[in-house]
C-alpha cells in the first residue's frame, strides 16, 4: 500500500466526491402506507410478483416469517389497467431489494421491524469538524493515511439523531468525509464504523442498523456496496472480525443475529445458527487457522467452521 499512496492522493484531488446527500430511497408514508409486514399463513413460500396478478412473473420466493418492507395497499397507483380487478387482493412491497406484489392474505403488520429514519452525506471535514462535540470511536493510521471517526447525539426538528462522522486524511490534509445519521428510537446503539478489507487494501465500513452495512473505499470515500438491513439484518453489529487476506467480514450482534459472513464484494456468504440464549452477548470473534471462535459474555464460546457450520459450544 505504501507505494501507491502518493498516486492515489493525486487521483483523489481530481475525482473528489462533491458535497451532497448520498442516495436514500424516499418512502411515501401516506394513508395507504402499511410499513413492515411479515409473511404468514403459508407452508413453503409466497410469491413476490411483478404485477398484482397470480399469473404475473414471479420475482422471488419469500419464505414464511420473512419481513417485507415499504408495504402499501395503494397498488391502484402502480398497477397497469389489466390488473384493476385484482388489486384489492395484493399489497405492494419490497423484498431483498426487489419491489413487487404479494397477496394480502399472506401478510400481517410487523411494526417492530419498521426501519428507522436514516440519512447520509458526503462532505469533506477537518479533524476538528469530524470530532466536533462527539466521542472519538475510531483512530486508524497506516503510513501517511489516517481515518478518524466520532459519534454524537444531535437534536434536530424534535428528533434525536445518532450521528457518526468519518474523515480520511492524507499527510494530515482532509481527503474525504462522510456522515451517517439515524433517528434514535431507544437506548441501543445503531451506528458503528470500523476498518476491514485486506492487509494490502484496507477499507472503511459504516454500519447503520436502520439502513445497512456500507463499504467506503479508503482512498476516495466512494460507496462501493451496501448490504441492506432488509436483506441481512446484523443486529447492532457489536463485534466484527476481518480476514486480513480475504477481506471477509464476520459480524455478530449483542442481541442477535448469530454470526454472519460477508464477502469483500458485499455478498452474504452464510449465517450461522448457534441458538443458545444462555451464552449472552458476543464479546469477540477470533479468526483461528482452522476455525472461528466466538466468545460470549458468559465466558463460554462457540467454534465454527469457515463455512459457518457449528463445531461445538462450550458453556
What's the helix and strand layout?
Blueprint lengths: L4 H10 L5 E2 L11 E7 L6 E4 L8 E5 L4 E6 L17 E6 L2 E6 L3 E3 L8 E5 L4 H5 L3 E8 L2 E12 L2 E12 L2 E11 L7 E7 L4 E7 L3 E5 L6 E6 L10 E4 L6 E4 L7 E3 L5 E4 L10 E6 L4 E5 L4 E4 L5 E5 L1
Antiparallel strand pairs: 1-9, 2-5, 2-8, 3-4, 5-6, 6-7, 9-13, 10-11, 11-12, 12-13, 14-15, 15-16, 16-17, 18-19, 19-20, 20-21, 22-23, 23-24, 24-25
Task: Note down, in words, how this protein is organized.
The protein has 315 residues and is mainly beta. Among the domains are: 81 residues, SH3 Domains (SH3 type barrels), CATH 2.30.30.40; 84 residues, Thrombin, subunit H. The chain is built from 2 helices and 25 strands. The chain is globular. The N terminus is likely disordered.
Summarize the structure.
The chain has 315 residues and is mainly beta. The protein has two helices and 25 strands.
Write down the oligomeric state: single chain
CATH topology of one domain: Thrombin, subunit H
C-alpha end-to-end distance: 42 Å
Radius of gyration, Cα only, in angstroms?
22 Å
The biggest sheet, with number of strands, parallel, antiparallel or mixed sense and barrel status, is: 6 strands, antiparallel
Provide the residue-averaged pLDDT.
87
Percent helix, as a range, is: under 10%
Uncertain runs: 1-22
- By CATH reckoning, the class of one domain would read Mainly Beta
Q: What's the shape?
A: globular
Q: DSSP helix count?
A: 2
Order of helices and strands: HEEEEEEEEEHEEEEEEEEEEEEEEEE
Helix vs. strand class: mainly beta
CATH architecture of one domain: Beta Barrel
Strand content: over 45%
Q: What is the total tally of β strands? A: 25
Give the spatial strand order of the biggest sheet.
1-9-13-12-11-10
